[in-house]
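User: Can you predict the 3D structure for this chain?
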Amino acid sequence: MRILYICGDQGIPVFGRKGASTHIREMIAEFRRQGHEVALAVPDLSGDRRPEEDFPVHKLAAPKSKLLGSDGRYLLANFKAGGALARIATDFRPTAIYERSALYFTAGEKLARRLGLPRILEVNTLLAHELKNRLHFPGLAAKVELGLVRRAPAIASISITMKKRLVAAGCRADAVRPFGMAVDPRRFVPPADPAARRSELGWPSDAPVIGYVGSMNTYHRPDRFLALAEKLLEEGHSSARFLVVGGSESKVAAARERLGRWVGEQRVHFTGSVPQAEMAGWLCAMDMIVVPGAAPQSTPTKIFEAAALGRPMILPATEPIIELCGADSPLLFAPDDEAALEGLVRRFLAEPAFAQAPAGRLRETVLAEHTWEHHARELAAWLETMRRTKA
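Assistant: Here is the predicted structure, written as structure tokens:
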């Protein structure tokens, strides 16, 4: 197939390090590896483009005028995207469309209808609700978004939880299939020297390293991790080290200032944002990875990446994470129970072996059912079935 991959979301640097960026890049990589031709249309082309990402990329408009307001900028971007997508389709001649949903973005739907192409709409959240505080007309945004998802003949939802929300919003249950985040096991293999990063930091090989990985966005609750690290360090807890990977410069700077004393004592280290190619090495430097918070409708990418490496994790028991790990996992804590989170970390420091068996089971599950290869194969088959039906 010739798949036109559309992302109208202006907040995703397509070659960047956000989870959404990884989602797009890995899906395209797998579509291509499986023999499909792909062209990408997206507003933000920034990031670290890999040499093998040599597929056609087309920039969609991203108006910046503050006079238009958020809603006006989205609406103008959608209007301009209509003409741009028509020109791209003329040159690329797609046989199918795969689209990541975006606010006020109806241009992909219109193109698919005009050309009679099968189209899957990927829905990771209901953006009008998530971004309502940024919008001048949240009611209008919600109306447009609900119309878009209700009309979609096929939806790839980020989780079963998201599927339930979409069905409750009026989507047909048989039109929605869950495809969560995933991992490429070829990228996430233990490095030749798993202790290399620890050695670079000058940390003893027997020091327990507790890690946090992520963008440090509010809903990931990095504040909980920092508070817990601060508490344990103030207690003078054994030889524990704390490693924080990811985050913007400003957020990392604030966190480093908060834990400045222990940064100076080399008990805490902040890497800032790192390329995906380096992530396996940093994950393997951690004995326990703490995920203090997660969005209610999805499972963060880092969980799949860490699981593929067999790294133990302490995780919030959101519905999607329970779907992945099982309700009986001893590594889950109630999302708002900070005492339970602390208890699990303390248990790990006292009894590290307790986390190994559940980490092994999660690795098996992820490698069997949650790889980008698996998702791309299933989605391409879905598009092909739709294409034959239309023919």
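The chain has 16 helices and 13 strands. Residues 69-92 form the longest helix (24 residues).
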